[in-house]
Prior knowledge:
Elements: H1 3-21, H2 24-34, H3 39-67, H4 70-89, H5 98-113, H6 116-162, H7 164-186, H8 211-248, H9 251-261, H10 264-279, H11 281-301, H12 306-320, H13 323-334, H14 340-366, H15 372-389, H16 396-406
Amino acid sequence: MNTKIRSLAFTSLSHFSVDGNALLFPVLIIYYEEIGLSAFIIGLMPVLYNLISGALSVYVGSYADRVDKDTLILTLGIFLNGVAALVFSLPFIFRGEAYEFLILGSVLLGIGQSIYHPIGATILSHTYGPKESPSYLGINGSFGSLGRSAFPFMVVFIIALLGNVLGLDLIVIYFLVAALLIFLGLKFFKRKDYQIKSPVIQKQPESSVSIKGAIPAFLVMLVVIVFLRSMFIMSINTYMPSYLVGLFHSKKIMASVLSFALIAPVVGQPIFGYLTSKFGGKFTITITSIGLVIFFVLFLFLSKGLVTILVTYTFFAFFAFTGFPVLMGYVSQVVPREKSTSANAMVWGVGNTLGASTGIFLFDGLHLFTSMYNAFIVLLFFAIVSAVLVIYIPGKAKISAIKERDSI
Length: 408
């Protein structure tokens, strides 16, 4: 197996595992409420682990850029995801210490979830290069979507078969095996093997704007857009299992709806990764931002039965859960390789993950005073603002013009 295929295969296994595990706690919320735990306090746990993940992602990216030990760092992240699943099983055994275990599990999950996206994107951008990598990030992202699709169905039916504790222990075993396979599969990767000497670039006049000068402004605006978008998407991601159980009064129907709908991004991520390569990141961010708003509006206001809910949520998922190839592909087109992980971490960690923490906290607070339905409507506003702000990031033509000027 050549190195390109290995990098794609084992980062895809990592993405499947990490994104799948991101839906573990949202499904477990239902089970924790059944044993009498406070819905409000349970709702603070996704705030905590997303906050930790977002804050650490920046440091993970910066550290990884310095030490060139991506495989070891990535393996640690997968391992910690498994340990978090183990700790999340303990509240079902030790009810008196349930909240302490929820906090500990959330801390471990936050650390584990902080690692994959900046590291995985860097491995692929190095092995495939900036021109090809968005397409392969799309293929890789489809495995993350497959994980999100598989885990709700898997968790609900394993727990139904084995019980809360044994079901979660089986997931722990999966993560330990996955961590070992990922370490063995990616141990070949060293960034130093992919370094390309940059050509000597003449100093630009002070009035000229180079791509290096444009990066901070580009990153700041992109982070703001991703932050607002993530406030909305991750609130939906966290509370949709509970919302669907409230509608259908069945965990199995909830799991089936989520698993079916979340198959759509498995197809969508490669498509949007290819479109990012061909037409640029601004184009795909615009399309996905508008699409997710339209179909969530249809989901909320026009969906009355199982079929219409399934159809509209499936199309929403198709546009919403495409961030990895679109955002990381866009970053790879603009940011120099030597700064790739730091930039990936800033966009994904600060924008996507801290945005998620903020949105979930807002939703949790709103839900104290109003229904989930009304809270969804409030969060939808942030998605609309995010879509409007896309006009302020540079498109493919502008990026190409700046790069061409820099090469003179």
